[in-house]
Amino acid sequence: MRKIPETRLPSSTARPGVRWLILTPMRSPGGALQRRAEAALICNTVIWGATFVVVKQALHDVSPVLFLALRFSLATAVLVVLFRGSWSHPRNPRWSLAGGALAGIFLFSGYAFQTIGLQYTTAPKSAFLTGLTAVMTPLLAAAVYRNKPRAMEIGGVLLATCGMALMTLPTLPGATLSMNRGDLLTVCCAACYSAHILVLSRYSATASFELLSTAQIGISALLAWSLFRGMETPHIRWTPGVWAAIVITGIFATALAFTFQAWAQRYTTSTRTALIFMLEPVFAWITSYLLTGETLSGRAAAGAGLILTGILVVELKPSPARGHPS
Fold it and tell me: Among residues 250, 270, 307, which one has the least CA distance to residue 82?
């Protein structure tokens, strides 16, 4: 990937090299704003989990990357109209656009790696490996900041990761641990999602969240339209299900959800953000149960319980003031 040109920062915050690109904000999270921010992130997981069934059904009639292009395009149009009053004097426009562009690259890359990887691996394995975002986020933050995450955060992440494994990985007699090309691509997806979280944490502190969210979705749309013919054999049948999926995911699961995230990450840490996002498969199952009657095995239910426990371990002990979230 071509290196993004550096933008000059104030001398008090400038750092040599490239590390500043994904540094998280210096504002200390905590209090009512942190609780609101994390509630907004939980709302995101509800939205994403609830739309899983809708998207799964729509993909019978539309190729995945073309669907992403349509979804991101609608979301960009919605945000341009929604925030039309903010475009005349946005907060730190260059900084916001730079952050949005970088976040958009990582966001689309995550979707692309996941989509291609699904051609070579199973859906449950893909779900588990994508969930490794919660493990990679504190590790990537520690590599960038040279600062270890808190013990409670590590404990919560490990519990939630074990829960994700129970929910998604099937038990097969004689099964062995192995990784194929699809698994490696999905690990790259998790790394991109981790980088996306860290980029938003860095830029959201001083950027216009309206411009930041619109720019990242717009860049994702441009990348999807530019690359979809090379990544798949595009096809679409304009069924009511496809229309519904594009509208629902474009407005709620993309435009609103990523705007919530761009705002919320001003006030909470990147590790806590990644951990909260592990609730998505739990809400996906709840939606599947309500809409299709799909039941959860005892093993998967135990996994869901571990995910919730891991999140509660962290949430019941709010993060103290610190120089940067990790």
Answer: 250
Q: Average pLDDT, whole number, for the chain?
A: 81
- What percent of the chain is modeled with pLDDT above 90? 37
In degrees, rounded to 5, the angle at the alpha carbon of residue 265 between the alpha carbons of residues 105 and 74 is: 50
Of 4-8, 281-285, 319-323, the range with the highest mean pLDDT is 281-285
What is the DSSP secondary structure assignment for residue 130, as one 8-state letter? H
d(CA 314, CA 278): 13
| Whole-angstrom distance, CA of residue 175 vs CA of residue 173 | 5
Compute the distance between CA of residue 312 and CA of residue 308 in angstroms, rounded to an integer. Answer: 6
Stretch 287-299: mean pLDDT: 73
Angle formed by the axes of helices 133-145 and 123-131, nearest 10°: 30
Containing H/E element for 53? helix 52-58
Report the distance separating Cα 313 and Cα 213, nearest Å: 30
Phi–psi pair at 84, nearest 5 degrees = -60, -25
